[in-house]
Amino acid sequence: MANAAPKLLIVGSINRDLIFYGPHGSQMKPNACLVFDSWAAYHGGKGANQAAAAAVLGAHPTLVGAVGSDPAGEEIASALKALGVDVSGVARVADTQTGLSAIFTMPDGSYVGANVLGANGRITPAMVEAALDAQPFDMVLMQLEMPLETVYRTHELARERGLRVILDAGPAQRIDLTRLKGIYMISPNEAETEALTGVVPSDEDSALKACRILVEAAQARYALLKLGGRGAYLYDGERGISFPAFNVQCVDSTAAGDTFTTALMMRICLGETLPRAIRYANAAAGLCVSRRGGLASVPTADEVSAFLREQEDAL
Ligand code: RIB
To answer: Which of 10, 125, 185, 293 gives a 20 to 30 Å CA spacing to 239?
Structure first.
């Protein structure tokens, strides 16, 4: 494997997360109130979680994003900088608020979220272009918590420079996959897969069917489904392979997908094979779900290596 820390460009959201724990029942009904035991505020947002994960896992991440003129924006940007994220591409937008995500944890460790886009709606293609022109990168990662035009243009701008792009396809929504022609990888979770393809990936046949739709529409090199406790499913245009998740106690799945995709991208940049990179990413995500919070729950490279050693010793 290569030794140099990969230089990663991450384009995406920055949020204040309010996470509610200890649900009394899990049904969302009109005119009814969900009741929880406690709540906590964290730094989050898919872009921020991914940039933090890249930094603590040992890469050199640059984040292109936007925060509002409120204290939350400044606090999160400072926390990211302290972790080693280059935040020179994070804009402070005067007349808007920093993004907010209310996350209601469910008894099974999954969550239901409600987001305010806020400043994330002001991430522009020009900001991405400026970051790409400022320095060389090994790979680009983006998600869907920002204007779709920025998503499509990020792909085009990266492609013009010969850079591989991964789309972490959350939050769940339908997008024009044909505007991502030639993308390296599309990686949705179960709900995002259904939103993008109309197929619920409940077993190997449906996972394969969904991946075929993704790969054909976007002419993508790979589709990689994140299936929570069921692990991951990779399709390379010819065949699909399942990768089981590690058996861990899930307390909060916030940022698990972000951690998985970032860990995967980093290991790909280091020259690891995809199956080994997916195993590493599954370990990183497993550690993430065993802790509370968004950005705060991301494991370090040492923790992931120790976890993988423990798993091998247990065999
Ligand atoms: O992927 C997890 C993230 O999604 C949370 O941190 C929350 O901010 C939402 O954007």
So the answer is: 10
> Hey, is 300 helix, strand or coil?
coil
**pLDDT at 134 exceeding the cut of 90:** yes
Contact 41, 295 (CB under 8 A): no
The most confident of the ranges 1-5, 219-223, 297-301, 308-312 is 219-223
Q: Phi/psi zone of residue 255: left (φ > 0), alpha (ψ -120 to 50 degrees), beta?
A: left
Using one digit for the tens of pLDDT, what is the confidence trace for 266-286?
999 999 999 999 999 999 999
The letter for the amino acid at 265 is M
CB 44 less than 6 A from any atom of ligand 1: yes
Predicted pLDDT of residue 107: 79
CA 192 to chain centre: 12
pLDDT at 109 over 90: no
Q: How far does the chain reach from its first CA to its final CA, in angstroms? A: 25
SS3 42: strand
Measured by CA distance, the residue closest to atom 2 of ligand 1 is 255
Pocket test for ligand 1, best of 11, 14, 15 (most atoms within 8 A of CB): 15
pLDDT in tens, 38-70: 999 999 999 999 999 999 999 999 999 999 999
Residue 234 C-alpha to ligand 1 middle, in angstroms?
23
List alpha helices for the chain, DSSP H. Answer: 46-56, 71-83, 125-134, 148-160, 190-197, 204-218, 256-269, 274-289, 301-313
Residue keyed to tokens 């944890």: 105
- Active-site residue identified among 168, 252, 258, 313: 258
Q: What is the pTM of this model?
A: 0.95
- Environment class of residue 197 by beta-carbon count within 10 Å: exposed (0-12), middle (13-18) or buried (19+)? buried
